[in-house]
Amino acid sequence: MKAARFDYxxxxxxxxxxxxxxxxxxxxxxxxxxxxxxxxxxxxxxxxLVDVGRLAELxxxxxxxxxxxxxxxxxxxxxEDGAVPDPTGGILPAIASGIAYRAVRNRGTMxxxxxxxxxxxxxxxxxxxxxxxxxxxxxxxPRESRVPDLIRGAFDTTLEEGExxxxxxxxxxxxxxxxxxxxxxxxVGEFAEAMAAVLIxxxxxxxxxxIGATETRHLVLEGRDIEDSAVLDAALAGIGIxxxxxxxxxxxxxxxxxxxxxxxxHVSA
Length: 269
What we know:
By secondary structure, the chain is α+β, with helices and mostly antiparallel strands. The chain folds into 3 domains: about 5-50, Uridine Diphospho-n-acetylenolpyruvylglucosamine Reductase, domain 2, CATH 3.30.43.10; about 55-170, Uridine Diphospho-n-acetylenolpyruvylglucosamine Reductase, domain 3; about 180-265, Enolase-like, domain 1. Helix content is about 30%, strand content about 25%. The protein is built from 10 helices and 14 strands. It has helices at about 15-25, 35-40, 75-80, 90-95, 100-105, 110-115, 120-130, 145-150, 230-240, 245-265; strands at about 5-10, 25-30, 50, 60-65, 65-70, 135-140, 140-145, 150-155, 155, 165-170, 180-185, 195-200, 205-210, 220. Strands 4-5-10-6-7 form a 5-stranded antiparallel sheet. The mean pLDDT is about 90.
């Protein structure tokens, strides 16, 4: 099947892109690794595509004392290859290297993954656990959001008409931070059936467990309760997973592995 007819625009700057989105009623295009197949299957039929993948405003990288602000169009491969600074001591490159296949990583972007909001994708779960702050821009002005507030369900976000993700700020972890990440896939490169990310950063008073690959929004547990099996079971029951014994066992196993890794794995200095 081929995509339905659409107009294509490649604006010179972010303001022109936002103006084009509003005027054309179109959809932003960056790496196109999720949008392209949706177009070909006619699951998405925008009147226009506004290509934002080469805009300087979305390709910037700003290193700060407390973290790094990435432009939304930075690719998975650039993170994997260390072409941009990493405030997490190796977490971001490790996650990027496990996304799909290299051909996808060469074009896919962090911002595009968040905007697509597939609950089984790696970046939403990872960035929620890291406490990333998402920068959004519209002609009416900028705003910020955390991942759990941006993604309200599977393929469903709080992005408003004419608004795009312009950047992602990832906080710098302390030297004492510990991290665990596990996902279960049928084969390498596929989306996960279950996934979990754990961040324990005592100097910053953070203990956070994020569970992805659900059929709804991510589960975020914080504080001492992240290792409480009763709390986990209640959370899984709240989104219907506990009703499927096999699926519940898979999620419990993935969470247990992530928690175990976080107890022993310190991030790099």
